[in-house]
Specification:
The protein is an alpha/beta fold and about 425 residues long. The chain contains 16 helices and eleven strands. InterPro entries: Methyltransf_16 (IPR019410), SAM-dependent_MTases_sf (IPR029063).
């Protein structure tokens, strides 16, 4: 067969024993190594000449998002191949998995040459519905992006967060009546900081004699991410009592302690955390005491404590898609089932934006199926749009011609055009007591 006939539709995952043979994993690693070698040597040599097994063709590896996905797959493959190497008793299979481990480490070293730096600051511009920039530092939000070795996949500002933050800033998604928000998987903090900024502006325009009770609890799995969020909160002048509260949260640990998954005992822990937490902590900081003392979300105090739960790009593995709906239901406040409440209060909401990756339709389907099992959370809206489509729709509503647009909006439109991926945004709303 020719190389084109041997292509897989998704990267070969090492899961169950009979899921993917080592040949497909090795073939994909060989292809990836050839692609990276070509980039290094500025060569156009075909990367498929020597491949004789089914493989996945990595495309646009120079693109930052594609490179990050590639890096995650290689790290995951190295870890799982190591387990297979140790488990298999047959000499031939042992040799194959050993080769996969060695090749994965070689490829990881090549990918690292094109990876992210240790950390960098990024300024994301945001606009209000009328086209003016938000009243924040420089008209946007500052975030601190960590390297992969420090924060795994949480160190990058993903485009799903950019899209959702924009929509909230423009008021397309109205959060003005909400007061207590929690973000699941905050990463660099763009989404949470945006909401905190808007909460602060709402409080400033309200009665000055009344103390604001608005707060955004920003959660993630790694202490290094929480530390970076604290730095970002200070940079955006949002860190303080009643504004932003960065907190550690392991979804599966919380689900276990809150007894949310008793009927899903067979579900294994996710494999999305490719680096060991303690290892990342040591790489990022020698101050272990600071990491150990990081605040953790309390399941007792957090049950029903929030009227807004948000998340962006968190539907990465099926295991996560099973626990996130239950966790959101647990954290989200119940409502009073009477007419007076309906006319005076905003219903608690769970808002999620996720990229529609060709490799992750199973995860999207699992999430939607799990959400459908929660009778008190109804789907208020669901829409698919690329960043470019979202921006174009908004721009058409505020400008009669391109000449009327501010230069920063034009620059954003050029940047958005580089990302053709669609993003799905869900808004679930609490509809009554369970």
């Amino acid at each position: 067969m020719i190389a084109a006939e041997l292509r897989l539709e998704a990267p070969p995952e090492i899961g169950k024993k009979d899921e993917y043979p080592p040949d497909s994993v090795i073939a994909t690693l060989l292809h990836l190594k050839a692609v990276l070698d070509n980039i290094d040597k500025k060569s156009n040599k075909p990367a498929t000449n020597s491949i004789e097994s089914y493989y996945y063709e990595w495309k646009n590896i120079s693109d930052e998002t594609s490179r990050m996905c590639c890096k995650q797959w290689v790290a995951r493959t190295a870890s799982r191949a190591m387990v297979r190497w140790m488990d298999y008793s047959q000499a031939e299979e042992n040799n194959s998995w050993e080769s996969a481990v060695e090749l994965a480490h070689d490829v990881m070293a090549l990918v690292d040459e094109y990876g992210t730096v240790k950390h960098k600051y990024r300024h994301v511009l945001l606009w209000k519905s009328d086209g003016t920039k938000i009243q924040a530092k420089g008209g946007g939000i500052y975030v601190r992006e960590l390297g992969f070795e420090q924060a795994d996949i949480g160190g990058q500002t993903w485009n799903a967060a950019v899209l959702l933050a924009r929509r909230i800033a423009r008021g397309i998604i109205d959060i003005s009546k909400h007061a207590r928000c929690i973000e699941l998987g905050c990463g660099t903090g763009l989404l949470g900081f945006t909401i905190a900024h808007l909460f602060e502006k709402c409080a400033e325009s309200a009665d000055k004699t009344q103390k604001s009770d608005k707060i955004v609890v920003m959660t993630d799995y790694l202490p290094t991410i929480i530390e970076a969020v604290k730095v970002g909160a200070r940079e955006n002048e949002l860190l303080g009592p009643g504004i932003v509260d960065p907190v550690l949260l392991d979804w599966f640990d919380m689900a276990k302690r809150a007894r949310l998954m008793q009927d899903l005992d067979h579900v294994p822990l996710p494999t999305a955390h490719y680096l060991d937490k303690s290892e990342i902590g040591e790489l990022a900081s020698n101050d272990k005491a600071r990491h150990m003392s990081a605040k953790r979300l309390d399941p007792v105090c957090s049950k029903g404590a929030f009227d807004l739960v948000v998340a962006a790009d968190v539907l990465y593995e099926v295991e996560q898609c099973l626990v996130i709906p239950r966790l959101a239901d647990f954290l989200l406040a119940q409502v009073l089932d009477n007419e007076e409440w309906k006319t005076t209060e905003a219903a608690p909401q769970f808002i999620v934006t996720t990229p529609l990756r060709s490799t992750h339709w199973t995860e999207v389907a699992a999430f939607e199926a799990e959400m459908a099992k929660i009778p008190t959370l109804t789907l208020k809206s669901k829409d698919d749009a690329s960043r470019a489509e979202d921006m174009a729709t908004w721009v058409a509503s505020i400008a009669t011609s391109e000449q009327c647009l501010a230069a920063d909006i034009k620059e954003a439109m050029v940047d958005d055009a580089k990302d053709s991926r669609k993003y799905r945004t869900y808004i679930f709303e609490r509809c009554g007591l369970a």
